[in-house]
Amino acid sequence: KVFGQHLAIQIVLRVPSANTYSRWPRKPLVMSFHGRTGTGKSFVSSIVAENLYQLNIPRRRFVHHFSTVLHFPHLSHVQLGKEQLQNWIRGNVSACPRSLFIFSEMDQMPHGLTDSIMPFLGYHEEIDGIYYGKAIFLFLKKGKPKAKRELQSHRICRDKGKDVPVKKLQSLLSEEIFRNRNSGFFHSQLTQRNLIDYFIPFLPLKCKHVRECVREELCVQGHPEDEDLVAEIALATTDYPSEERLYSSKGCKTVASRVTL
């Protein structure tokens, strides 16, 4: 159900499993997702949650969402936000060491706020009697990556069946978010101290990927197959670059509503 993101999937579904199989991980697992709207960042984070916990256990006890816009609307209250964030993480991990924290809208995160959780992400046996090594942190950042040429080169390599320069892409993303004032990690201690384990690019979706999204949504909503509608929606949402129209600027974000209409 995740289309066009083979690189992200091969990392994201492998790494958390390795973390959970370890009885005492050396540090919490920290991953940062980067990509345009509708490329699957939130969806993949929900897949991680589904695979971490048993089906009969209420996930709300272990999966914790932090939305910058919702939970931190006042940019002038950074110090208060730092204290609240620390208390929130400390309380949830003490209740469940295998907690999953998902931070969305990192591009809206005030400068310095993420540094407040730095102590929880490092190599510590315990902090004030609490062990954080089993926790998992996911940071979701939307936006157009500046490493555009490299990402397009990756897409070409992948389409041709060539090896993917994963380490190079992760290095480029790490440098980009450290220097980008709107990344949530601008000059952050989290990147300076290498506390983010994986920087994962979610690549722009091509027309063929949007087609797959539409087919899946038709099935989910109980509609019969309709290739004319599939082609219509895919072509309407494949809109950039303006001359070539190779990719969708919204990915699969609006597919469900278009299918409903």
TrEMBL record:
<keyword id="KW-0539">Nucleus</keyword>
<dbReference type="GO" id="GO:0005788">
    <property type="term" value="C:endoplasmic reticulum lumen"/>
</dbReference>
<dbReference type="GO" id="GO:0030659">
    <property type="term" value="C:cytoplasmic vesicle membrane"/>
</dbReference>
<dbReference type="InterPro" id="IPR010448">
    <property type="entry name" value="Torsin"/>
</dbReference>
<dbReference type="Pfam" id="PF06309">
    <property type="entry name" value="Torsin"/>
</dbReference>
<dbReference type="GO" id="GO:0045202">
    <property type="term" value="C:synapse"/>
</dbReference>
<dbReference type="InterPro" id="IPR027417">
    <property type="entry name" value="P-loop_NTPase"/>
</dbReference>
<protein>
    <recommendedName>
        <fullName>Torsin-1A</fullName>
    </recommendedName>
</protein>
<dbReference type="GO" id="GO:0005524">
    <property type="term" value="F:ATP binding"/>
</dbReference>
<dbReference type="GO" id="GO:0019894">
    <property type="term" value="F:kinesin binding"/>
</dbReference>
<keyword id="KW-0966">Cell projection</keyword>
<dbReference type="GO" id="GO:0034504">
    <property type="term" value="P:protein localization to nucleus"/>
</dbReference>
<dbReference type="InterPro" id="IPR049337">
    <property type="entry name" value="TOR1A_C"/>
</dbReference>
<keyword id="KW-0325">Glycoprotein</keyword>
<dbReference type="GO" id="GO:0016887">
    <property type="term" value="F:ATP hydrolysis activity"/>
</dbReference>
<dbReference type="GO" id="GO:0031965">
    <property type="term" value="C:nuclear membrane"/>
</dbReference>
<feature type="domain" description="Torsin-1A C-terminal">
    <location>
        <begin position="206"/>
        <end position="259"/>
    </location>
</feature>
<keyword id="KW-0472">Membrane</keyword>
<keyword id="KW-0256">Endoplasmic reticulum</keyword>
<dbReference type="GO" id="GO:0030426">
    <property type="term" value="C:growth cone"/>
</dbReference>
<keyword id="KW-0770">Synapse</keyword>
<dbReference type="Pfam" id="PF21376">
    <property type="entry name" value="TOR1A_C"/>
</dbReference>
<keyword id="KW-0378">Hydrolase</keyword>
<dbReference type="GO" id="GO:0071763">
    <property type="term" value="P:nuclear membrane organization"/>
</dbReference>
<keyword id="KW-0968">Cytoplasmic vesicle</keyword>
<comment type="similarity">
    <text>Belongs to the ClpA/ClpB family. Torsin subfamily.</text>
</comment>
<comment type="subunit">
    <text>Homohexamer. Interacts with TOR1B; the interaction may be specific of neural tissues. Interacts (ATP-bound) with TOR1AIP1 and TOR1AIP2; the interactions induce ATPase activity. Interacts with KLHL14; preferentially when ATP-free. Interacts with KLC1 (via TPR repeats); the interaction associates TOR1A with the kinesin oligomeric complex. Interacts with COPS4; the interaction associates TOR1A with the CSN complex. Interacts with SNAPIN; the interaction is direct and associates SNAPIN with the CSN complex. Interacts with STON2.</text>
</comment>
